[in-house]
Amino acid sequence: MTTSSRGDTAATNALIVPLRECTPWCEKGDGHPDEFPHDRRCWSSYGRVPLSVAGGHHKFVGTVDDTWVLPHLNVYLSRDYDLEDPQVVIHSEDADAELYLSLDAARSLRDKLDGLLGIA
After folding, report:
1. How far apart are CA 103 and CA 78, in angstroms?
2. DSSP string spanning 50-107?
3. pLDDT tens digits, residue range 23-80?
4. Where are the domains of the chain?
């Protein structure tokens, strides 16, 4: 087995996953060279969607740095290192949960919401 001057073997070097070009909307944009291959995920900036109940009333969910926080969802794009298509992520900090949607599922959700809003 061949050994380099750093002591790495050719077998080890064969396991290195090449960097992948980031998406145009990736916040990092450098191929994520300092991350393990399975962590190389492109993330877009996020949009915050404040949540309220009927009549515009808000339910406060707790405090952050002694400030009351309104419930909200963060929505953004994500693409894993081994996927071609991005996913739409809906993240709730309040529930500490994430929902990953394919682009087709996100479009379907949009259409269903538009339909409900159209008859409301």
Report:
1. 11
2. E---GGG-----EEETTEEE--EEEEEEEE-TT-SS-EEEEEETTTTEEEEE-HHHHH
3. 999 999 898 888 887 888 999 999 998 877 666 666 656 555 666 667 788 999 999 9
4. 41-119
CA-angle at 46, arms to 111 and 23, nearest 5°: 90
d(CA 41, CA 55): 39
The most distant pair of C-alpha atoms in the chain lies apart, rounded to whole Å, by: 72
What local confidence, expressed as pLDDT, does residue 69 receive? 66
pLDDT of residue 1: 45
Confidence check: pLDDT of 104 > 80: yes
Give the pLDDT confidence score for residue 114 in this predicted structure. 96
Q: Which residues contact 93 (CB under 8 A, 6 or more apart)?
A: 72, 74
Distances (CA, A) of 107 to 30, 110, 111: 29, 5, 6
pTM exceeds 0.85, yes or no: no
Nearest CA-CA partner of 26 in 11, 8, 47, 40: 40
